[in-house]
Amino acid sequence: MMWILILGELGVFGAFFVGFAVAHALDPTGFEASQARVGRVLGGIATVVLVTSGWSAAVALQRKRAGLDPGPALIGSMVLGLAFLGTKAVDYADKFAHGIDIDTNTFWTLYFLMTGFHAMHVVLGVVIIGIIYFNDSLENIETGTAFWHMVDLIWVLLYPLVYLLRS
Amino acid sequence: MTGPPARAWLVLLALTGMAMWTGGPNGSSPLGVLGIAALVAVSGFKAVLILRDFLELGRARASWRIALYGYVAVLGGAIFVAYAAVAG
């Protein structure tokens, strides 16, 4: 069931990614002028935080299989997931302070939709990891961490596309 | 814990730095076709590492491996074509 959900979410984000690339191709100058104002370094820091969270989730599964307590690694994943959301809060606050919002232009509409939709998945992922912390059967940990790795996977594709890639 | 997840994590950190360097932390100069290809390739490899070593896709059925690795390949290819087509 979780694999079906993961495939569905990947399909939705895939459509977003292709739509973003096509919109860029239609207006490369406008997109790249807007993209110059994204926080590339902050986005890179967010990437490091999220992949470290993903590693911690993988460690939790390894520990469970080895008969060790997966709890500390799951807490590490949750804390880093919350830290990732903190970087998004800083990012959004900076944009709003500079008068940039979802209605500014097509680039910023897609920026807020894609990063915001991803952030919602991070929130859901933190909740799921919190649930499996208290119900830490091997099956639950496999299922919950699979969702978290999907969230991680989407970000490592979203970050270069939205923050770095230009013609 | 060591093993594939730890190795993948270290490589992911290094590749994230490489992607930031390729994209330029503050620059707005054109990347060109080679820069676009490098960035797409690095990002695709990061995605494969997450699928293989974090999600343990090797334990899944072949159909899932084909679907997920194929997803990364098709998406990367489409993004590369869309950006390379308008590269200066």
UniProtKB/TrEMBL annotation, chain A:
Family, as annotated: Belongs to the cytochrome c oxidase subunit 3 family.
Membrane topology: Multi-pass membrane protein
Keyword line: Membrane, Oxidoreductase, Transmembrane, Transmembrane helix
Residue ranges occupied by any Heme-copper oxidase subunit III family profile domain in the UniProt entry: 1-167
Any one GO biological process: aerobic electron transport chain
Example of a GO MF term: oxidoreductase activity
Residues annotated as transmembrane: 41-61, 73-90, 110-134, 146-165
The protein's name in its UniProt record: Quinol oxidase subunit 3
Organism: Methylobacterium dankookense
Enzyme class: oxidoreductase
One cellular component (GO) term of this entry: plasma membrane
Record's subcellular location: Cell membrane; Membrane
Enzyme Commission number(s): 1.10.3.-
UniProtKB/TrEMBL annotation, chain B:
Lineage, top ranks: Bacteria, Pseudomonadati, Pseudomonadota, Alphaproteobacteria, Hyphomicrobiales
Pfam families, per database record: COX4_pro
Compartment(s) of residence: Cell membrane
This protein's name: Cytochrome C oxidase subunit IV
TM helices/strands, residue ranges: 29-54, 66-86
Species annotation: Methylobacterium dankookense
Single GO cellular component term: plasma membrane
Membrane topology according to the record: Multi-pass membrane protein
Keywords: Cell membrane, Membrane, Transmembrane, Transmembrane helix
Chief location: membrane
